[in-house]
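quick one, 819 residues, struct below
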Amino acid sequence: MPSSLPTQAQVVIIGGGSIGCNIAYHLTQLGMTDVVILERDKLTAGTTWHAAGEIVPAVLGAEWECELYLHGRELIAGLEAETGQATGWREVGYIQPADTAERLEEMRRGAAFMNLHGFEIHEISPREAQERFPIGDFSNTLAAFWYPKEGRTNPVDTTMALARGARTRGAQILEDVAVTDILTRQGRAVGVRTDHGDIAAEHVVIAAGMWSRQIGAKAGVNLPLQAAEHYYLITEEIEGIHRDLPLLEDPHNWSYYREEVGGLLVGLFEPDAAPWMIDAIPDNFAFGEIEPDWDRMAPHLEAAFSRVPQVAAAGVRKFFCGPESFTPDLAPLIGEAPSLRNCWVAAGMNSLGILYGPGVGKTLAHWIVEGRCPVDHTAFNVSRFADGTHNTPAFRRARTPELLAKSFGAHFPNDSFKTARGLKRSPLYDRLRAAGAYFTESHGWELPDWFAPTPEAAKIDRYSWGRQNWFDWHAEEHRAAREDAIVMDMSSMAKFLVQGRDACTLLNRISCNDIDVPIGKVVYTAWTNQAGGFEADLTVTRMDVDRFMVVVGENSHGHTETWMRRHIGADEFVTITDMTDGITQINLHGPKARDILAKVSAADLSQEAFPFMTAQHIDVGLFRVHALRVTYVGELGWELHVPSLHAVQVYDLLMQAGADHGLRNAGMQTLSSLRLEKAYRDFGVDVDNTDTPIEAGLGFAVKLDKPGGFIGRDALAKIKAAGVPKRRMLQFLLRDPEPLLHGNEIIYLDDKPVGYIQVGAYGHTLQGAVGIGFVEIETPLTSEIATSGAWSIDIAGTKIAATASLKPLFDPAMERVRK
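---
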């Protein structure tokens, strides 16, 4: 029990594990020293106490992951010297074997990306792997990858050192204080209630590990987290094992290995993991263990022993099972809770809390102090779960068994979760499935990815980094869009009706483009933060003087709604209604789209009567729909916003009308290839909150001189005034028609690495793989450099010559969409 409890603080952090102590450490570094950590038991209780402590990066696929990891490794390596508290850090190196051609392809691609971002990674032979890890079996290994700078630390000692650093700069750390509630007032967190009294606070941070879901729920904050059993075995001493033995991770057998007191620690990330305590984590579980399930784990241990056969003959010192918390999409939950201002979250580390802790602590500290996130937040922002889905007991029970292996094993393009599916289905789902749709999943939505000739053929024969069995079917969809017409179910797009006296004022304040346009006009715009970085890219349609429709991708649903609501002024009257579930969006595009739509509508669909970037209510058969003449594929066409009650009937009418015009269903793969041929941008995929519209080539949608300005205007004006940027987004086309681009491939100019592909696809019209990516050079990146430079793209170690362009390589004059 604490001797005294403060009555107020700038920041109260709930949880005294790795994450909570890292946040306090970094907040006090930034000068915010009135910080209180509340730990219901003792520091490090819970996940931190039983964590294995490997500081290894595996294959990182995002810039933010690299940034967070590298900060953590650097901080942990120097923490003992700073604080005087031993951490147990040892730089012993790290090995990953690749036993299959597909895994080798993944590792080569990943190594190139990570080398660009500051990692030292070397491809080594099986013999060299054997020399570094003598007790391993690499007889089936094609190649291995050696990370010499990685290592291990003691999680408890490291957390204690972080606590000491924070305490030295003024933070208070109170143990044996349980937070029973978060205090709120008018939509804001204003403090916490504990079993020893209340503490008023300007900011409250939920960093309570696997208890975070329960704490958040008390304040109406949706945090989809589920604990799962996590196992490791510790052997008796094994001859030849020494303290400097490298760390070894084996994704083929879902296992990892390191030295432990002369023996070997063998950890498991098995593909049939067991959820733990679905209803609630016990409050009194602190330094506890879970009774191991030997029968379930025996086959996985046997597989792990195949990599290190000597382990099978060694005595077992300990078989440990403890809980780790996981999120539905294996990304952390970080940021300000969308439903509660000044309530921050840092949870759901997916067994990487020691590794990511310092990076998360630094990121959230800057976010709190400076008011914006310093790294790309699009993957981990807690606002992505604002709608409350992904958090039922049934969902967590079904999804959790897949998560451990998914985080640890081999990864492929186009691979999606297999469990807990069907959360969000369009009214057209059954029609599309009968038409041969193969469904992928995004943010709970079932999305048709591509279409097979028959429903029975709609399966993936084998995941691959090369052409998969659906490649030719997807090519036919792509050609139909360019030559005939396609219909696409885009119901996953989030749609918000924004109306009221001050709706135009609000939208103009948060939009770079001018929203105060005539009724019926569709406006493409970016929303930016004060630094000029993207917070969304979307369309706004003016439906009336005080009524607008905002349409944005499903990956930005929660963030977009939160951004709008948080910028409504205290004296403004605006209502925001989420219309997504009530509107089925059917996109009709292609050169014959007008002919098809004219067969079922009496509306004048001519260019003169219905020009590009306008919207009208039109009839389709018996039904009235809201039609937007826009495109994300670079072709003539319309977005049809159909009341979901009538969706199936409208779809059937279009398919019947298009039967003689080559109309085909098309999926997300075709959407991607079409939009990348046209070099259209996508927030959360190829641009994020650290990129600006000017760098991204979207300056045409930034109206610096519009009355009243907008959020981020001054920052963008400064960038614009500086002239041609040194960092710009370019489009690339491989000159060899065989290789594929998936994203993260390194871009070279005159054999110097200058960036990486954000996202790629195969451009069937351009007859080669296409992608877009940011390039940064030492001089202004002019169009002359883009068109005349010697460009190449590294694909798994092979450089492929490429054509680069600042303008779209397909239809740069926009002739096809305006006809």
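Residues 63-83 form the longest helix (21 residues).
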